[in-house]
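Students often ask what a holo structure prediction actually looks like on paper. The answer is less mysterious than it sounds. You provide the chain, you provide the ligand, and the output is a string of discrete structure tokens encoding the 3D arrangement of the protein together with hypoxanthine.
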Amino acid sequence: MIPEKWEPVFGKDHAQTKRTGTGMTNHDWLISRLPKCELHIHIEGSLEPELMFALARRNGIRLPYESVEALRRAYQFTRLQDFLDIYYQGMSVLITEQDFHDLAFAYLTRAQADNVHHVEMFFDPQGHTARGVSFTTVVDGLTAAIEKARAELGISASLIMCFLRHLDEADAERTLDSALAHRAKIMGVGLDSSELGHPPAKFTRVFARARDAGFSLFAHAGEEGPPGYVWEAIDVLGVDRVDHGHRSLEDDTLVARLARDRMALTVCPLSNLRLRVVDDLTHHPLRRMMQRDLLVTVNSDDPAYFGGYVNDNFRAVRQSLGLERDEIIALARNSFVASMMPEPDKQEAIAAFDRAIASLHRS
Ligand code: HPA
Ligand code: ZN
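The corresponding structure tokens follow.
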């Protein structure tokens, strides 16, 4: 179901796109107003330090940082594992259904402010069940927030349950067993956590079972791992979309295959910068990926840790790569094309997007 607030998207101040001196560049105004989907967001990675401290207080948990500022200062990463260590520590304040609700509702409220119309949200159940929090507590809290956000904010969202790839397949199998009792609340399964040394093929059987149960399939691949991991994600796991995937550019045959199949890739520029996947955003591969006809989208990954929500990511690459207006529009449109909305809703959303762009061009 497409939220009712869908049209019009640009409102009365169309003309602002043509003005200067507003304090915001024309391109940044466009980014702020473009409707979009967010397809790569780990909900636990949206836990802002302020909420982390509030939940710690509510649950009687002591954090190993004396203040919000001290915690933010610890967010210095040189690779994925540095981040993951802090990320798993941070999520330890999430205990009750209310905590998961508050986390997700805060993110959805923030996403709506960026003109996000639809979200496909990762969560890491094993990061919670290993601490004694039940699968039901996690899923019911997140689902309550999604339902409230649909009713009150007009934003739609669905859940993707990720397996932690540093754990073994048997642990993922048990997690899938738990998910089957909540089948209707979960749209897909994904694969995240420490990539190197944990290739997608390690999870062949559990992904086959998930496919048989009707879940859509996703995997992080080619973030730190080699192009071979992307091949495994598409050929062995049979994923519907690849998360990150920029190292695919090292393999021309793989690029041709991804382009031919219109396989979507969810790119997260500020994450890539903060995890030193790229040394500088001016070297970010996003534009090269577009030039090679890949279906790429822009996303925030873990916005509380990487310094920005989805529009911050758009603005950062717009500025660093000098993206043109048509490229920005194409990226936002791709997010609808790459989404897993039911097909009629997706077609309706794309048509509404195109009408909005046409009206912008006429104004
Ligand atoms: N990569 C892999 N695993 C993750 C990430 C990421 O960026 N964020 C949360 N889990
Ligand atoms: Zn991710």
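The pocket of zinc ion (ligand 2) is lined by residues 40, 42, 192, 220, 243, 301 (CB under 6 Å).
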